[in-house]
Amino acid sequence: MSAITINTTSEVNTVPMSAILVPVCEEEAAGMIRAAAAAGRRLQISGGNTRSGFGNRVEADAVLRSAAISGIVAYDPAEMVMTARAGTPVAEIEEILLENNQMLAFEPIDHRTVMGTEGEPTIGGVFATNASGPRRLLSGAARDSLLGIRFVNGQGEVIRAGGRVMKNVTGLDLVKLLAGSFGTLGFLTEVTFRVAPRPQTEQTLIVSGLLDEDAARAMALAMGLSVEVSGAAHLPDNVKGRFLNGRLPEGAATVLRLEGLSASVPVRAEKLTAALGRFGPISRIEADASAHLWHQIRDVLPYAGDSQKPLWRVSVAPGAGAALVLAFRQHAGVDAFYDWQGGLVWMRMEAEPDADLLRALIPRFGGGHATLMRASDALRASTPAFEPQPAPLAALSERVRQTLDPAGIFNPGKMGA
After folding, report:
1. Radius of gyration over every alpha carbon of the chain, rounded to an integer in angstroms
2. Comparing 201-298 with 301-392, is the CATH topology the same?
3. CA gap 45, 187 in Å, rounded
4. SS3 149
5. Are 402 and 387 in contact (CB under 8 A)?
6. What is the domain partition of the chain in residue ranges?
7. How many CB atoms within 10 Å of residue 173?
8. How far apart are CA 415 and CA 417, in angstroms?
9. 140 to 162, 166, 270: CA distances (angstroms)
C-alpha cells in the first residue's frame, strides 16, 4: 500500500500498512496509538525526520510523526522557561529566543549535515535524541535543560511528568528517561525547558600545530582555569582545512571558545593566552567568525553530505579520545576530530564500521559509548548501532520499556532491542 497521511481529529480504528500518520493534537495521537496497540501494529516515531538514519533499522507498519503538533505554549523571558509542543521547529524557537537575547544553552546539533536529510528539526526530536553541541562542557546536555514533558505511552495514555521547576516528584524520573530514548519509550507531545541569556560577544583562541595527545593536555589545562571556556575542540591537520573555508592558521587547530560580556571576554582571553603559550603559536578569531566556526564543529561539517562511509559518534573521558583513535588506527582506516575537550570523537571510517574492534577498545580506555550515526542500509542492518551495551543497563532499559510500552510498538529494534 502506498504511503498515506491521516490527520483528522477522529479516533483511528485501523493503522494501514506503510501509513504515515500525522496527528494534529495530543488527543488524536493518543487515539492513533491506542488503535495501533489494539491491532498489534508497530510504529516508527518521527518528528521532522531529519535524524532518520539514527540507530538500527526500524521495521514498522506505520510512521507516526509529531510535526503537526506544533506551537509555543508558554514563554516568559523573565523566567527563562519555555513550553512548546514537540513538533515545533527548532528554528522557530531560536528566532523567538533571539528576539529576547536568549538561546538554547545546550546548542543542539543539526543532524541534516551528516545524515544527508531534509525537513525541519523539531524541539521534540532534539530532546528525544538528547542532541547537544559544543557548549555541553559548560551548560550541560539537552536533558539537563529539560524540566517537564507530556507524552503518550504505548497504551495510548497521556502522561505528564515534571513541570516548570527543576525538582521532580517521587518515583521514576520520566523526564530524564524520555530524553535520549530515541522514541522507544513514548511519543513526546510537549516539552518544558530552561533557556539561557545570549552572550554579548565571543572569541576563539587557536593553538596551532599540536599533536592529538598534546592538544588533550592543552584543553585540560584550559578547562581547569577560571576563564569559563565554553567550547574546547581539536581539529587535526587532515580535517582542519574543511573549516572556515580553509582560513584557519597552518597546522592542526586546537580551538577554545570564550563567551560573555564584552568587557570580560578580552581579559579572560589574555589569561588563557598566557597559560597556553608554551604549547605553541596562538591566534584569535572574533565574534562572527568564531560563531561560524563553532556552528561547523557542532554540525560535523567535515563529514557532511550523504556519504555512505560509516560515521561513529564516540563519547569517552576527555583524556581518552586521542588514545582511542590512535589504537583504532593500528587496525583500521579512520578520520577523526574531537569536541568536548577530546571526550566526543567523531570518527569516519574508510570502509567497515569495525564495531567489534570499537566494542573491545572502549573499556580499555575507561569506558564510554558509541553511536553509529551513518552507514549504508546493509551495514545498519548488520551492525549494532549503540556500542557497547552492558547487560545490567540493557536489562534496566528493557524493564522501563515494558512498563511504558508493554507491547513494544514504538520504534522496535531502534536501539538494538
Report:
1. 22
2. yes
3. 7
4. strand
5. no
6. 1-197, 201-298, 301-392
7. 14
8. 6
9. 18, 14, 26
The answer, yes or no, to whether the previous bond of 392 is cis (omega within 30 of 0) is: no
CATH code of the domain made up of 301-392: 3.30.70
- pLDDT-based confidence at 416, cuts 50/70/90? low
Instruction: Report the alpha-carbon distance of residue 348 to residue 351 in Å, rounded.
Output: 9
Mean pLDDT of 50-69: 86
Strand, coil or helix: 94: helix
DSSP symbol at 10? S
**Helix axes 355-364 and 321-329, enclosed angle (nearest 10):** 140
Is the pLDDT confidence value at 14 over 50?
no
Q: What are phi and psi of 365, to 5 degrees?
A: -115, 35
Q: What is the 8-class DSSP label of residue 199?
A: P
**Between 3.40.50.300, 3.30.70.2190, 3.20.110.10, 3.90.1150.10, what CATH number should domain 201-298 receive?**
3.30.70.2190
Q: Which of 355, 286, 281 is nearest to 314 (CA)?
A: 355
User: Could you tell me which of 127, 102, 53 has the C-alpha nearest to residue 313?
Assistant: 53
What number of other Cβ atoms are within 10 A of residue 346's Cβ? 22
User: Under a CB-based contact definition with an 8 Å cutoff, are residues 14 and 75 in contact?
Assistant: no
The CATH class that applies to domain 1-197 reads alpha beta
CA 53 → CA 93, 117, 309, 341, distances in Å? 24, 9, 13, 27
Amino acid identity, position 359 = R
Question: Cell numbers at residue 123, please?
Answer: 524541539
Q: What is the model's pLDDT at position 165? A: 44
Q: Which residues contact 122 (CB under 8 A, 6 or more apart)?
A: 47, 48, 66, 67, 70, 86, 87, 88, 89, 90
Mean pLDDT of 241-263: 97
